[in-house]
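Methods — Computational structure assignment.
A single polypeptide chain was analysed. Its primary sequence is given first, followed by the predicted tertiary structure written as structure tokens.
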Amino acid sequence: MKRNVIVFILAVLLLASLAAPTSAVDERVIVVLNGVTLSPSPAPFIRNDRTMIPLRFIAEAMGYDVEWVSGATSLITVTDAARGVTVIASVTGDAFTLSRKVGDDVREIVMDVSPFIEDGRTFVPLRFFAEAFDYVVGWDAATATVTLTGYPTLETARPDTQFSLLGDRLTVRLPHSAAVRDDIAPDKNFAVGATVLDFNLSTEPFYVGASETFAYSSGDLTKDARLMIDSSLGGALSDYAISMPVNVASEVEYVTITPTYTRHDGDFVLLTSALARMPDKTLVFVGVYADYAAARGDENYARLAGEVVATLKPGAKLTLETRARAVPLSDYSLDVPAGYAAARFASNIFTSYALNKLVTIGESSPQLSISLGAQPVVDDDTEVKPTGFVEDTILGQTVTWSLFQRDVGAFDGGTLATAFVPIGDDGQGVNLAAAPQSEADWNVIRGIARSLKLK
């Protein structure tokens, strides 16, 4: 077993201050680590509804080295070098705060119990310690047994935990270590435009990306897959293998689209994907990706990707809303015409909204994107200059659309229009970006933008 390095910086005075007397009755508990029953000495026990266990024992049982370095007060640093996980902890009064950092992502957990010294040993709350290192913690009250299931390897990982995609349009099973990176809470007014689920196996990163195509099936799912390859995936049809349609619970049907050779975009490679036809005939795309350098030549990646796609099932939200309606946008609302789907997309900076006219796959969808925030800064030296301008009235203000057209004056697939509606004096406002496919689309999109109003 790989032995990771855990460096704990605990001041002697801090440990002394955390010492706690033994309660009158401490319930004993059994701990099972990856199927093996442990025999720590002293034995773990339940105190104040928390399972406490000797720190050194559980760390070494998990395969970690424990190094104690005195000198810093109230600070604990935990480093799992093999997986790039750093855990930083601090003690404030009776609360034990744990921050887990992976790359630039920091997740903070505040624990409601503190470690303490008893009979010369430091005890820690087992659940918080184990979950910080991605162990799944189970509890059997009948036998007072805690089960710890460790981080899976690429060879042993199986899709065993269900996750929702696109606001529960579909579900998929992934290894338990998966985490949502880009998603947004379901809302009856909006579709979820995209979901990204990350999961790491040892040092090998995977992710599952799901997205609405905002397109209807042509009626032939195999033909839909060919059009998807041509419009979005790139390469020739001969570069992919398309499966026979798979029917799931008589509600959803999908085909798999698998590259016949290694295709990669930057650092990641598409292992396999699925194009699913929902009951309302709209199409959803789901792809499984992995690190290109690691996945090249390793059949375990393809195996796991195939197993993940095979777990696709219908969710609770099987249809997109396309009726004419008013939808809320933070403090605003706007009117969406019939035939358009309203979706939200999550980002690290803000939430954006998109209105897409549903079309048959292979056709280009007219779109209006909306985000609330500062006006984007445009470099004056950029080679892309507006080809024209159109004045409009939005939120009671005169607003100028900047047009970027491949053929000046032609509102076709080569047109992009942007506008900014300022709100107040702090530089914030509403950003609009339109992609009409015809002059009729342009007039509809302008009508949608003009309908924007305060609630």
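Note: The chain has three domains: 4-149, 161-314, 325-454.
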